[in-house]
Amino acid sequence: MTIHLVKLCVGADNIDDLRLWQNDEARHRGRPVCDTRHAPKRVEEVLAGGSLYWVIRGVIVVRQRVTAIDVVADPVTRTRCEISLDPALVLTSPQPRRAFQGWRYLTPEDAPADLTEAGEMADVLPETIRKELITLGIW
């Protein structure tokens, strides 16, 4: 069974900020990586087609497929977890989320649909307008 992860995208105001951060990560590490303190215990389920859903400004708006989960030694915290991600950013139907620390599991039933699957015109609607619609509670 597949399970997904949800994580706050701290410091990003929009998807373009996430894209810039990940391009920088890819230059340094060769791939986009999300560092966390604790590793998921359900690694096999996440790697069985799971994605990392990003919460930007209180709303899940984009996801990336998880390609690897590695626990690595760290001189400061002893260990940390590197979640390697597919570079493709997939826009999702907006789903509000309250702030939380770390990451959370997300079942496939509770995951927002990809915009292309939902029949939305994701490529046509600018992110500023999407964000305003979400803020107003219309979308």
Layout: helices, strands, pairs:
Layout: E1 4-8, H1 15-29, E2 33-36, H2 43-47, E3 51-56, E4 59-74, E5 78-85, E6 90-96, E7 103-106, H3 127-136
Parallel strand pairs: 1-3
Antiparallel strand pairs: 1-7, 2-5, 3-4, 4-5, 4-6
Any overview of this molecule?
This protein has one domain. The longest helix has 15 residues. With about 140 residues, the chain is of the alpha+beta class. The chain has three helices and seven strands; from the N terminus they run βαβαβββββα.
Q: Helical element count?
A: 3
Number of domains: 1
Q: Biggest sheet, open or closed, and with what strands and sense?
A: 7 strands, mixed
Beta percentage is 35-45%
Q: Could you give the distance between the termini? A: 30 Å
The topology string of helices and strands comes to: EHEHEEEEEH
* Helix amount: 10-25%
Q: Could you say which structural class the secondary elements and strand pairing correspond to?
A: alpha+beta
Query: Which runs of at least 5 residues are low in confidence (pLDDT < 50)?
Result: none
Kindly report the average pLDDT value.
86
In short:
The protein is α+β, with helices and mostly antiparallel strands and 139 residues long. It has helices spanning 15-29, 43-47, 127-136; strands at residues 4-8, 33-36, 51-56, 59-74, 78-85, 90-96, 103-106.
